[in-house]
Design a protein that fits this description.
By secondary structure, this protein is α/β, with parallel strands linked by helices. The protein has eight helices and eleven strands.
């Protein structure tokens, strides 16, 4: 296992570690000072395909509900870690509100650009500067991080409460949700946030649609909540993060 190192940016300093094998995730988290068990929120969904107007519509959900609740519950939040879409929104909102909970990005190292890094892949993307920790994992394509992200959340929860929230999303979000379900983690799809989340939410409510949406919705772990049902969203998060392990 490699030693953690710091990533410097104009906004902050984050601690990162490379992980070469899935069985090394727990050790990597401990080396980052993130010993389990901890309540865990996994945020998956829209990245580069998210419009600015769409993200503005989502901001109250993050600023008024998700970030304050994660802070109140001393949760760790895990996402894809790049400077795009809901990951950018989450990182910036956390900083704007002065929150202190760990925000952990799980990113394929070959596709991550950062100060001092050497990624040259044409599909590479910058890391989001307001994250506090990064797990840099093996892979060659976007989506290869999905099982690592789910595995990291499971290791960090350590048998305690965890929840995945699906907000918007494209093709990779489908695999992110499937990985959470395979890990036994509940998933809330935010209806009205767009794209994959809307499709999964509709399927969870019994609507006909894509087979992969219906397949996910067959799991009792998958449910939906409306974007404008802030009180319901907060109750769902409170319940998920406070239940007995």
């Amino acid at each position: 296992m490699e030693e953690p190192f710091t990533i410097f940016s104009a906004a902050s300093t984050a601690l990162a570690v490379r992980v070469r094998q899935p069985e090394g995730l727990l050790s990597a988290l401990e080396r980052l000072g993130l010993e389990p068990p901890r309540p865990v929120l996994v945020i998956v969904g829209g990245a580069s395909g998210s419009s600015e107007s769409g993200l503005a519509q989502l901001r109250p959900l993050f600023a008024e509900s998700l970030v304050p609740l994660a802070q109140a519950r001393a949760a760790c939040v895990v996402d894809g870690g790049t400077d795009a879409g809901v990951m950018r929104l989450l990182g910036r909102t956390r900083t704007e509100l002065g929150a202190s909970f760990p925000l952990i990005g799980v990113v394929v190292e070959e596709l991550a650009t950062h100060p001092g890094g050497g990624a040259v892949n044409p599909d590479a993307a910058p890391l989001e500067a307001n994250h506090t920790h990064f797990l840099l994992v093996e892979g060659t394509s976007w989506g290869d991080e999905s099982p690592w992200l789910a595995g990291a959340a499971t290791a960090l929860a350590g048998g305690g409460p965890s929840l995945t929230v699906l907000v918007g999303g494209g093709e990779i979000a489908w695999e992110d949700v499937a990985e959470s379900v395979r890990a036994g983690r509940s998933v809330i799809a935010v209806a009205g946030s767009g794209r994959t989340a809307d499709t999964v939410a509709a399927a969870a409510r019994g609507a006909a649609g894509e087979e992969r949406g219906r397949e996910l919705a067959r799991s009792p772990l998958v449910s939906s909540i409306d974007l404008d049902d802030r009180a319901g969203f907060e109750r769902a998060l409170e319940h998920a993060l406070s239940r007995e392990a």
